[in-house]
Design brief:
By secondary structure, this protein is mostly helical. It has three domains: 31 residues; 314 residues, no CATH class; 98 residues, Cytochrome Bc1 Complex, Chain D, domain 2 (Orthogonal Bundle). Helix content is 35%, strand content 8%. β3 and β4 form a beta hairpin. α7 packs across α9 and α16 packs across α21. The longest helix is centred in the N-terminal third of the chain and has 29 residues. The chain is globular. The structure holds heme C (2 copies). The site of one heme C has 24 residues, from α8, α13 and α15.
Amino acid sequence: MSTLFRRYWVLFLFPILVAGISIDGIQKWVIQYGSDIPKVWTDEAIKDWELPNFNPEFSAKPVSAAFYYNLPERVIYKTYTVYHPDHEPEGYWDWLHSIDAEIELDESKLLTEEDFVKAGELLFDYPIDSLGAIISKENVRDVGFYEYSEMPLSKDGIMPFARWIVTGKGKVYLGNLSCGMCHTKVMPDGSLLKGAQGSFPGDKAFAYGLQKAPENDVKAVSGFLFSSPWAEGDPHGELLSKKKQDILDAYAAVPTGAFGRQGTSILFPPQIPDLIGVKDRKYLDHGGLGQHRNIEDLMRYIAMNQSLDFLNMYGSFNPLGLNDEVINSGKPIMFPGTYDRHSDKQLYALAKYVYSIKAPENPNKPSQLTEKGKVIFAEQGCVTCHTPPYYTNNKLTPADGFEIPEEHYDKYDIFDISVGTDPGYTTKTRRGTGYYKVPSLRGLWYRGPFFHDASLAKLEDVLDPKRLESEYVPTAFIGAGIKNRAVSGHEFGLELDPEDKKALIAFLKTL
Ligand code: HEC
Ligand code: HEC
């Protein structure tokens, strides 16, 4: 028997091989793509996914898994184009009011990776709010709104940052807060680049609507969005003690390309990051608040940032004035974006889509000049932090004044040098961690304004030593009521001669 086996063992292997292949084949049929989607919100996973607050006593404590999964899953209705009033096709408004609701996404039909990516793109443009979180129905039908906010339009006079949602005959809502609202750029030719640093003038648009609101409402909403009373000097408390017009001015001062979303600030507004290439980044947000170790982390980030962070407890502080008991009582909390949630499958589709977005072809090709710039980039030590191929070393740098707790060195990727930029965002907001991550320099050619607070419009400004002087007038975000101020820190490459700067910038634009 044993000699027989030794001689003919290959024959014995054959049926096993066949069986192996067919089991794999059967698995592909029976177990659909995406059937092993991770559960995003478990108490264990959510506990230490985010970095602690710069003041760890006030680190965010998110809602429980029980609360989260008790929220109803989001129904994805068909949505419709919003036009500038001068470009709306005749009869469009009446037609919108005459049609019935249609459900656009049937999750049970998602079978392949391609299906998921396609559904993800649909979800990217799906507005999760119909209560008018940032802009209202009245706003988008008012020509003055477009003029005040300098709203860019895409081809054919389309307002690309919001959609009409029809949930039943005559029930037409203005949908806010799709990913595309903030993460879509209108290119110079009127085409749209999804995932790029967006060009929705969000804070100006919001300020327009707030003009008609009573002072107390303006203060209440600004409180939900930005209050972080434990921050040294309580800058948001100070802002809220001012007059309504001063608060509106602070909104209007935030330039396109930045947005004071919840948990951040209009005083220290975060630049909207380019999502193209996000798969290769280890931390999410300018302060690196969310760890990004795998697709689950991105799904968590998306779930949390669709307003669920309004329900976080920060010590005994909650932005909506709720307490633990109310939040975990299981009763719905009717606040934009917190009354329903994406299913895990929808989150997976969204994350897959975000990972799949590719940059457009770069028109800036390598040349003698860019080759010279590449050498300068290395010589100036830019590569230490902006390391190829991602042009980031994916590390966190401490902001001025932040003392790194000892235990962080084992837990996080830290490069222990402060680049000395303004510490406001990361030491005075709810999302502040005390760090700024090293951003990727990929796609600089279609990006801007630059730095975490969008102070500088152009790469030329980043390399301009005059920006360190207090008389400097920042070329993008300045701040309400401020005429001039220094844009400090990141003093790299400032002393290069004009020819070398030109070469360096030419190189940066090829990335
Ligand atoms: C109202 C505007 C707005 C909406 C809506 C929005 N984002 Fe963002 N997003 C921002 C801003 C601003 C930041 C930067 C936040 C910070 O650094 O504090 C950001 C950061 C991110 C990041 C982190 C990227 C990085 O490199 O740090 C990801 C990922 C992201 N958004 C994905 C999404 C997705 C997906 C959606 C839709 C589900 C979405 N965003 C909806 C404004 C928005
Ligand atoms: C010590 C690490 C370090 C070095 C060296 C360094 N950078 Fe940076 N760079 C950073 C950090 C951190 C930021 C984010 C700062 C902020 O926004 O507050 C940044 C931001 C930038 C930005 C703005 C990106 C954006 O999205 O807004 C550009 C452009 C840039 N660096 C180019 C360079 C060039 C060119 C060099 C070399 C001359 C260089 N950097 C050297 C760490 C570094």
